[in-house]
Amino acid sequence: MGESASVIMRQKVRDFSAWGRYPRVHGELVYGVSPEGLASLLKSGDPFIPLGNRRSYGDSALAARMLDVRPCNYMLDFDPDNGLLHAQAGVLLSDILETFVPRGWFLPVTPGTKHVTVGGAIASDVHGKNHHLDGCFSRWVKEISIILPGGQVVSCSRSKKPELFLATCGGQGLTGVILEAKFYLKKIDSCLLKQVTVRTNNLMETFDAFEQYRNMPYSVAWIDGTAKGPKTGRGIFTSASFMKGGDFDYRPHGSMDIPVDFPTFFMNKALLSGFNFLYYHRTQERVSYQQVVDIDTFFYPLDRIGQWNRLYGRRGFVQYHFILPKRQSLDGILEIMREIDRSGISPYLAVLKLYGMENRNLLSFPLEGYGLALDFKIQKGLFDLLDRLDNKVAARGGRLYLTKDSRMNRKMVEKGYPGVWQFRRFRRSHDMDKMFQSLQSRRLGL
Ligand SMILES: Cc1cc2nc3c(=O)[nH]c(=O)nc-3n(C[C@H](O)[C@H](O)[C@H](O)COP(=O)(O)OP(=O)(O)OC[C@H]3O[C@@H](n4cnc5c(N)ncnc54)[C@H](O)[C@@H]3O)c2cc1C
Questions:
Q1: pLDDT confidence of 287, banded at 50, 70, 90?
Q2: How far apart are CA 144 and CA 157, in angstroms?
Q3: Which of 64, 217, 302, 373 could form a disulfide with 321 if both were Cys (CB 3.0 to 4.6 A apart)?
Q4: Where in the chain is the domain with CATH 3.30.465.10?
Q5: What's the confidence (pLDDT) of residue 290?
Q6: Whose CA is nearest to atom 43 of ligand 1?
């Protein structure tokens, strides 16, 4: 078979964007996941970026040429003695849940959507609501198999080619195409969780709730981004743990699709204030209360609405996801929320999480502290505001999450990620910088 026939099974040229729908790139999407196809794609010498399910928000998965890894989606082996799953990189977390929850296994770490691939979870080193106890996804990865610029497929782990492992986990697809991974699932005794909910009156109370329930495996808080003054940072805190009792009747929720792009004016301040007021007051009691919830209700509430990103209209939105060291978190988040309030621009969604220890990966996001994710509609004045927020985050020793980013500058990544210099050197010394490029890697000089 000639090279070109084995490389690319199909290709599409059109405008692409990731979940935030900003920015867009006019690019070529190629599908060529056989080892021979990949090898000759690499031989062609034209740079590209591997792509999963495009649930990153910004431009880390966008380029003039993108390789869709999703067709590479077989689960290859599972060891029920220790929960080790061997899967190809295009397998979706939702498929793992459907296969393994009924057998009493759950993902060790899961982001707030289950529609991401294994490769995407590793390349962003995603975290979940249990980071304070269980760390990032990579902590549960035993081994990764990856194809490098020269076309050779190698496996790496913490002990085998550790530099490649530490650069790849969180490396935003810039070290090679992840083909397969072996990682541990977590044993559960039920697919139901006991959830505790606490309505808080301000940020201090929200922090207190996180600390009070820090031994619960999962916790998260929705923050009312419209609350001002002494109410700043009020929200609904929830934490949960899996129940016992052997109920494994997992029923994935369906989703209601948003069929069209909403007009840009749909998401406006009146709607936002109304929603936040209702959502906050939906929880009547100030004291905590308990309820039993299923996996999709607790972990994936946003997946209930398919394509909810269309609500922001064609111009899209930006998620500003920052983290601050713990001792800076309270003052820093208050300062940032006050700056946002002064700007007259409000976030449509604000989610706060507690994070545990930082890992050794060169570009993983979490550090010990609190992180806040804020969704902003693209609008006039937004990027100036975000530049001002960058200065505050950097001054307090924080950083922005690369997989949500579409606009930070080089200085910001250099201040936030001390490992970036080593990452750059590593890429250069292995010719990865010539072969794997995204809009983000070019902007940030990664
Ligand atoms: C509603 C929602 C909630 C989310 N919640 C969280 C959260 O709680 N925590 C969190 O950490 N993240 C969260 N995310 C972000 C998401 O988990 C990550 O962006 C994840 O990487 C997306 O995976 P993907 O398969 O869609 O990859 P893509 O978005 O397609 O790609 C993401 C990155 O991975 C690289 N990549 C993908 N596949 C491969 C591969 N096979 N080999 C090498 N590189 C590859 C790409 O080049 C790119 O840099 C959320 C996203 C959404 C939309």
A1: low
A2: 6
A3: 373
A4: 75-188
A5: 86
A6: 173
> How far apart, in whole angstroms, are the C-alpha atoms of residue 390 and residue 387?
5
> What stretch(es) of the chain map to CATH 3.30.70.2520?
192-408
Smallest CA-to-CA distance from 87 within 75, 97, 79, 73 is with: 75
CATH hierarchy code of domain 75-188: 3.30.465.10
Q: 55 alpha carbon to ligand 1 midpoint, in Å?
A: 5
No. of helices (H) and no. of strands (E), the chain: 15, 21
What spacing in Å lies between the alpha carbon of 193 and ligand 1's midpoint?
Answer: 25
Q: Whose CA is nearest to atom 19 of ligand 1?
A: 56
Dihedrals phi, psi of 398, to nearest 5 degrees: -100, -170
* Topology classification of domain 192-408: Alpha-Beta Plaits (3.30.70)
Q: Measure 172 CA to ligand 1 centroid, in angstroms.
A: 9
Q: How far apart are CA 300 and CA 135, in angstroms?
A: 19
Of the pLDDT bands very low, low, confident and very high (cuts 50, 70, 90), residue 269 is confident
pLDDT tens for 346-380 read 999 999 999 999 999 999 999 999 999 999 999 99
